[in-house]
Amino acid sequence: MMLQVPQVLTGDQVADLRALIDAAPWVDGNVTSGFQAALAKNNQQLPQAGEAARAAGATILAALERHPLFVSAALPHRVLPPLFNRYGEGQGFGDHIDNAIRRDPNTGASLRTDLSATLFLSEPEDYDGGELVVDDLYGSHVVKLAAGDMILYPASSLHHVTPITRGTRTASVFWIQSLVRDDAKRALLLDMDVAIQRVSRTAGPADAAVLSLTGTYHNLLRMWAEV
Ligand code: NI
Questions:
Q1: Alpha carbon of 41 to ligand 1 centroid (Å)
Q2: What is the CA(118)–ligand 1 centre distance, in A?
Q3: DSSP letter at 134?
Q4: Which of 102, 113, 177, 206 is most solvent-facing, going by the fewest CB within 10 Å?
Q5: At what angle do helices 208-224 and 183-203 cross, to 10 degrees?
């Protein structure tokens, strides 16, 4: 399932975050790549241990915790500290699949990447090219979102970033280990949660059907969740 998560950050938050990270030193993006990805990747990255990346990452993680659609769709168990990357003219990232396991640099814990996330930090009119293209059974999906908006997609997807032909594209990328590993089960739970919210608004939260469906949602989550 691919899902747009709108307005993870407000315009003011994006501006503050960009001022912070744009002023920090950037390095070649291949410091965090696996062997295969390193062949395809051509971008810049903010050093993960640096103060700017840590502060900006904390802002994003706090915003995600408060975003109901993100929580409902991703059912996050662990979220890796966000990385920040930047593509200038001529830079891009060829086809690849993200590493299955990544290490949390803060805790040393291994995390299974169920979901990949890209949070756009440049406005689409500020650059040409730089589309995120994600392939799935239904074809190729071209993604270029407003600054502050995010796309969630299965980390098992083949994807690439098309070369930049004008301007600069800045984004944050990170990975999520979900409570529910299977993408299809997670999609069903999201559909069910959205439907329950809808019925609850008209029938009221104490309605017998709403109570029953909410119970069923939690019992499915109990059956499928790994913690
Ligand atoms: Ni990737």
A1: 9
A2: 9
A3: E
A4: 206
A5: 160
CA distance 73 to 200: 19
- Mutual orientation of helices 51-65 and 11-22 as an angle, nearest 10°? 160
Which homologous superfamily is 3-178 in? q2cbj1_9rhob like domain (2.60.120.620)
Contact 172, 56 (CB under 8 A): yes
**Pairwise CA distance, residues 59 & 11, whole Å:** 13
Rounded Cα distance between 45 and 186, Å, is: 31
pLDDT of res. 35: 63
| Cα separation, 70 vs 82, whole angstroms | 15
Summarised one tens digit per residue, pLDDT across range 90-144 is: 999 999 999 999 999 989 999 999 999 999 999 999 999 999 999 998 899 999 9
Domain-wise residue ranges, the chain? 3-178, 183-224
163: its two tokens: 């070369």
Separation of CA 17 and ligand 1 centre (Å): 22
Cα 110 from Cα 205, distance rounded (Å): 39
Task: Look at the pTM and tell me if it is higher than 0.70.
Answer: yes
The rounded Å distance from CA 132 to ligand 1 centre is 9
**How high is the pLDDT of residue 142?**
98
Residue showing tokens 């299809």 = 184
What is d(CA 57, CA 62) in angstroms, rounded to the nearest whole number? 9
Beta strands 115-120 and 150-154, pairing class: antiparallel
Length in residues, the chain? 227
